[in-house]
Amino acid sequence: MANAKQVSGKLEWRINVPDGTSNVIVPESDQLVNKAWLWLKGLLCGLVLKIWRFLYKAWNLGVAEPKKVIHGVKVGLSLLLVSFFYYMRPLYEGVGGNAMWAVMTVVVVFESTVGATLCKCINRATGTFLAGSLALGVQWIANKSGETFEPIIIGISVFLLASATTFSRFIPSVKTRFDYGAMIFILTFSLVTVSGYRVDRLFELAYQRLSTVAIGTSLCIFITMVFCPIWAGSGLHDLIVCNLEKLADSLDGCVGECFKDNKTKFGTEEGPSKRMQGYKCVLNSKATEEVMANFARWEPAHGRFNFRHPWKQYLKIGASMRNCAYCIEALNSCINSEIQAPDYLKKHLSDVCMLLSTNSSEVLKELVIIMKTLTKSSKIELLIGEMNFAVQKLQDSLNSVPNSFIGPTVSTLQAPNEANRETIPKTAIPSLMDVFPMASLVYLLIQIAARIEGIADAVDQLAGLAEFKLAKDENSKQKKPTNKSTSDKQDHEAMKTSPKPIVDPLIFSKWNSFFPVEEVVSDLEGTRT
Amino acid sequence: MANAKQVSGKLEWRINVPDGTSNVIVPESDQLVNKAWLWLKGLLCGLVLKIWRFLYKAWNLGVAEPKKVIHGVKVGLSLLLVSFFYYMRPLYEGVGGNAMWAVMTVVVVFESTVGATLCKCINRATGTFLAGSLALGVQWIANKSGETFEPIIIGISVFLLASATTFSRFIPSVKTRFDYGAMIFILTFSLVTVSGYRVDRLFELAYQRLSTVAIGTSLCIFITMVFCPIWAGSGLHDLIVCNLEKLADSLDGCVGECFKDNKTKFGTEEGPSKRMQGYKCVLNSKATEEVMANFARWEPAHGRFNFRHPWKQYLKIGASMRNCAYCIEALNSCINSEIQAPDYLKKHLSDVCMLLSTNSSEVLKELVIIMKTLTKSSKIELLIGEMNFAVQKLQDSLNSVPNSFIGPTVSTLQAPNEANRETIPKTAIPSLMDVFPMASLVYLLIQIAARIEGIADAVDQLAGLAEFKLAKDENSKQKKPTNKSTSDKQDHEAMKTSPKPIVDPLIFSKWNSFFPVEEVVSDLEGTRT
């Protein structure tokens, strides 16, 4: 089906395809050039696009978190300062050719937070000093034992110390605090003992290394603490506060989503709102919290935090928040389910569920205020009391459900009340199956309330450890001009006692012991060594 | 009441206390010595105890994970080898005094897994090479522009490059893969440009640095891959397999705990069994998984894994497992609660709940086998079918609950069946409140089954991506000597079709769409940038 003809000295292949169109085949050499050109163009365009995207991402990151840009500028500045040691002849001659150790120290030690930088500086200085002195001792012993034994002693000591120290870096207590120091210890020990065999000016080497490390570290500490310091402690504090806010938002969003009208539901179904998804940040922030708490311990007093601020307690708050977020996760999937509870049941429980979720998120919001202002709140106990009262109310509604909806109980069976039965929709024959999603939702809501109390306990412990002061009376006056904080307390006492006649106190205490939150939290902590 | 008397030249104070005993006060100097001695003894004892505890911990760690000891020995060995450059005169003269760069490279680059070591080696080599060439270029330009401008040009270039590169380390794509390379880039660039101003043998410096880095990295790669290699990929694989087993154990343990006799319960209540707590490891393993998957990408083919094994898919499996673990966490707290469902309800649902949990954990155990053998399983679909069948059975039981227990429905009300009512215990007037913990438990069990299907999907995707082969027929014959895999499939088909007449298919599809597991998983993934 293919024929060839001579056109202006070039061989052209024409293939007759059944449908009548014809493809002209260009000679191979032209084709190759064309292909290469296309390939090169594609490659270049792709490269430019990739670089452009990278720069765009970087720009966005810089705009979103200017602190990161500032950190970059700070590192540049420190390196510029340290390189003056080279440019200025007197300084250069003071430290000798080893000024490069100072450059290296700055590059390696400068971290984005003050705590991390301090941790590395102290580790580096200590590791260098300890290893240097130990190496000098070993070197002295090796020197005394003759030329044959010298390399053997040094070799064995390097092997043993390096092995043992490397292994020790796996031990949790070393790993969290002295990991970098252990590495520097091995490094310095090997360098000093091994070069000691050649370089005769051993003391000088050790001294120069120590002094240049000192110059580098002090420069780093100075720059990181003076120019726009970024504190790991403040970061951790802000993270916890932000996560508390997100939890409150998620809870509000989830329950609101569940009990709003069905008509509006379909309008917003295209994507779950970002506000509701906040709890996922809480689920994923464990590693960040641990790193930050670890570095925060090295930081001096800054802002409103003392030197020995109980940063470890923040981890406990974080653990109890994650504990609560697990439940919100389950609640979220429960709400996203397509099986909806029967409308009459929904209506019956809507108000009490909304009340409980509102009260729960109000406790969270009060905790946010406590954390933000670092003051004890006089309102928090009242709010927790209200939350527990809402739990009781919800239980009350549950107890009244079977009488009116699920079916008459034994007592009503003996004297059937026709008027009461009229309220049951005829189409819906209720079964446990229908009640199910609602039951899970209510269970999870009560569970969440219990776990929020766990968060409140953790925050309260923090308030005790960090000696938060009581909020000023003026503040509470501004918020509630008619009530004094003493009357608040009276309210709270009233709240504690008033529901007793309404709800069986036994049920209340049963429900309170229903959720062993503290156990769970301490268990979660227990998995961390 | 105090009198003094002279006894053999020393002044002794005697205080007469009303009850007649007398305290002899030793002179102050003796007291101080005593105190100091006690203090010193306490200090020494404390120190010895601390060291002893540390060693004990280290010993335990070494026994539990001998890989970590091996890693320590490997680092010691590499350092010993690299120090030969110093001991052997010809080698020393070949590399010059810069042999210490090789020592430093070994200490800094040698990580516990092959992937991490390779990642650091490649980063270090590339960073050094790129920065070295760029620095030479800048140095050349600076040299050409005269003595006044030279330090200015170098200073500005160091400042700009260091700032930009430091900032780029925050960009996620750089951070996960090239973080170390970026640091080495800054380090080398600063060292070469800044020392270029003084050291006239610039090319030599760059060459020596490159060659010593090459010696160090190749030695590290050789040792880490030849002597007992520890692969990040295998580690990640084992972690996922182990977590799957733990999930299955937790599920079995939780549900077993719930439905076992009350009498035996009190015997084991002093501490939750370790087996049940396995899901907590799953909750906390996100960070580890991410680090390992990141390093596994750098590793060559090893064991049963190819070079481009889909390690990223393991993160998805991990995410879906965590998703399931959230539910088990809620289930666990539900079971630990003190409110127990009424016994008749428990009995009614016990069998179906146990069946569902057994089937669910069998799916998990089959997934473990799939992962362990890296083969596709012919049984997994059958098992998932059985699990879904159990879900239907449970729903069935739920639908039958209200007729017999909760209270007569409208239909039975019209013709009260006295015989049926006899089965209701007279003492327990059932309400939604009583049904609650049971309802939540059942809900969570069904939710867990749905999420286990999510895990199975993720594993199935892995099987597709990594091209797992079908398990040999011999294997399935050995396990089930009476059934062939073909008959298994037939069974599965039967399982798929048979329940349809029993259960309303609409309800089934409703329940299947009840739990949008995949959405949740992809959402979870979405929070990772």
UniProtKB/TrEMBL annotation, chains A, B:
Cell location: Membrane
Chief localisation class: membrane
Pfam family, one: ALMT
GO cellular component term of the entry, any: membrane
Keyword terms of this UniProt record: Ion channel, Ion transport, Membrane, Transmembrane, Transmembrane helix, Transport
Feature: compositional bias, Basic and acidic residues: 486-495
Full protein name: Aluminum-activated malate transporter 10
Source organism (scientific name): Quercus lobata (Valley oak)
